[in-house]
């Protein structure tokens, strides 16, 4: 079916290239992560302004634990600071915050701030910001299977039944998945949910992604036909 002048309801973004952005400029990788986090708010606010209802951001994957402890600790400290500083602003702008991923091995301070931000914003209906932190799609699917085993369900499950055990069960599947940084793969992000998502790749690094790039995404989305296999 045609989607001329249609605004995607849900956009998911793999925010890739923070470290390479910094290295290219002769800076420590931490500067790239800082710049990347600073780039979230303007894009989220613009997305809400133009009628998008949900943004899901891939902020830290289950595979990112393979990075140096110095880089991981910086990311955790920065993420905790961002959650603390931006939650009130996002709440005033009627944005609901949802965490996707495991809280296993996360710092207690960060877990506390995640829970407080979710509680603070839970009644906001205008827009949802889902942050995939310590998230991996295979881990999510495996956890869902184990929940089903623990629940002792004996009947056959439909796709909808199965999806109800996912961390993303309160979200629609993404209409578009964006990846910055020049790579062209999903890297264990929303594998089930993105089965029919439009994939759009940018060569620019995430810190260089601007609000007008969202306009380009919407233009490209409207130039595609989604027939879901029909």
In short:
By secondary structure, this protein is α/β, with parallel strands linked by helices. 42% of the residues lie in helices and 16% in strands.
Present the secondary structure layout:
Layout: E1 10-14, H1 18-24, H2 29-38, H3 40-49, E2 54-61, H4 69-92, E3 95-100, H5 108-121, E4 127-135, H6 137-151, H7 159-163, E5 176-179, E6 198-201, H8 211-222
Overview of the molecule:
- This protein has 230 residues and is α/β, with parallel strands linked by helices.
- The protein has a single domain (10-136, 172-222), classed as Decaprenyl diphosphate synthase-like (Undecaprenyl pyrophosphate synthetase, 3-Layer(aba) Sandwich), CATH 3.40.1180.10.
- It has eight helices and six strands; from the N terminus they run E-H-H-H-E-H-E-H-E-H-H-E-E-H.
- The chain has a six-stranded parallel beta sheet, with helices on both faces.
- Strand 3 (95-100), helix 5 and strand 4 (127-135) form a beta-alpha-beta unit.
- The longest helix is centred in the middle third of the chain and has 24 residues, at 69-92.
- The chain starts with 9 loop residues before the first strand and ends in an 8-residue tail after the last helix.
- The mean pLDDT is 94.
């Amino acid at each position: 079916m045609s989607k001329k002048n249609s605004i995607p309801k849900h956009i998911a973004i793999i925010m890739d290239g923070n470290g390479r952005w910094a290295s290219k400029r002769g800076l420590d990788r931490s500067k790239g992560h800082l710049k990347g986090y600073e780039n979230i708010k303007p894009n989220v606010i613009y997305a809400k302004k133009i009628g998008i209802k949900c943004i899901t951001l891939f902020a830290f994957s289950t595979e990112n634990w393979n990075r140096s402890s110095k880089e991981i600790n910086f990311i955790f400290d920065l993420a905790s600071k961002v959650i603390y500083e931006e939650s009130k602003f996002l709440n005033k702008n009627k944005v609901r915050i949802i965490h996707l991923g495991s809280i296993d091995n996360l710092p207690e301070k960060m877990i506390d701030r995640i829970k407080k931000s979710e509680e603070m914003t839970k009644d906001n209906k205008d827009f949802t910001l889902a942050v995939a932190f310590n998230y991996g799609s295979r881990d999510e699917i495996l956890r869902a299977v184990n929940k089903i085993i623990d629940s002792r369900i004996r009947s056959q499950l439909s796709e909808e039944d199965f999806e109800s055990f996912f961390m993303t069960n309160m979200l629609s599947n993404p209409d578009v998945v964006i990846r910055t940084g020049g790579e062209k793969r999903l890297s264990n992000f929303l594998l089930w949910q993105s089965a029919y998502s439009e994939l759009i790749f940018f060569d620019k690094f995430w810190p260089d992604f601007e609000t007008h790039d969202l306009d380009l995404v919407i233009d490209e989305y409207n130039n595609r036909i989604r027939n879901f296999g029909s």
